What does this fold into?
Amino acid sequence: MRQIDQPVYHHGNLRRAIIDAALEAIGESGPAGWSLRELARRAGVSHAAPAHHFSDKTGLLTAIAAEGFEVFADVLERTAGDILEAGVAYIRFAIDHRPYFEVMFRPELYRTDDPGVRSARERAFHVLVTGAGTISPNPEQDRLTTIAAWSLAHGFAALWMSGALPESAHDDPEIVARSLVRLVFGTAR
Amino acid sequence: MRQIDQPVYHHGNLRRAIIDAALEAIGESGPAGWSLRELARRAGVSHAAPAHHFSDKTGLLTAIAAEGFEVFADVLERTAGDILEAGVAYIRFAIDHRPYFEVMFRPELYRTDDPGVRSARERAFHVLVTGAGTISPNPEQDRLTTIAAWSLAHGFAALWMSGALPESAHDDPEIVARSLVRLVFGTAR
DNA sequence: CCCTCAATCTTGTCATCGGCAAGATTGAGG
DNA sequence: CCTCAATCTTGCCGATGACAAGATTGAGGG
It folds into this structure.
């Protein structure tokens, strides 16, 4: 039997194979350190084969961004409005699914108006924007708190990934992340 | 008379011209949306001329990162240990000097072991790491506070630049930044 | 004033890349 | 067994980064 969600062709499942090879390559050398032809070679197909699944190199990155936002939204939705857990989940996603994350927040790499990207992205961001709930009586303060929590999580994830933080290899990122979010937003709970 | 800090050659000052053209190109289409040959054409020189000033494309990006960290360090040092102003300055630098910022925190683009990069980078980060000063009696808490402030500033800058924030064009980023830092760290001052 | 010589820049070349076009192969359904 | 569209291949094009070899420039020494 064959997989249900993905069609199967001559290669087996070239679309998935190319995406997986791209994610691996991005993990090794960033979102620009590889070529479509290299992915094709890794998958054992001709250099023009990927073009029939992703019209462009941009198309491949668009598919990766869409898939990344889907997983991201799933992860965030599971935190069910808990701002502390959402922050930790945000950081864990960035570290566990680094290749996705490196594409998702770089709009110049892909087509941000792609329907798949848009819907998944909105689903993910909806959790964040409504996640702060009603912490303070002032809605403006809630809006600011949302941006602060989002910035904190995003910034820590980005800094961690770029290796900019001192002693970054010294602790488990999840533990640091949890301490961080608790330090800043612990009193608000 | 000639400039003091930069030697002058046949072109006038090709090294500077190429860096400036690169910064402009990065501002338009990101750190990967241009070619060395295009910069050479903009400067009116042959396609191989840039190679004598920056051995590589990586060499050019290394020079940009070093220059960026120099400016960054200057800006941060002027805040003189004020964690609130340092946070605001961090965000203002990212927005005012976006092309620098987009290269600096992407280590896979340049040679992070370059001496010029290392020294400027250490100078900038030194301000951040010692900036929290002695807010709490607990040094571990100071360390966490530093990372939190740094993450908050970096995250807001990155999210702002990627256009991910809702209503991002709606306010002056500096005002939002100042409110943010005050919201999170206002009580600590 | 001229000569030397290194720094600067040009010209030419190569493998590789993304993208396109045209054709071959495959396999599901009639 | 036949049709036909989806899939994949082959061949090609202009552009790119990198390299090699040669031409040009101009500052400093004689």
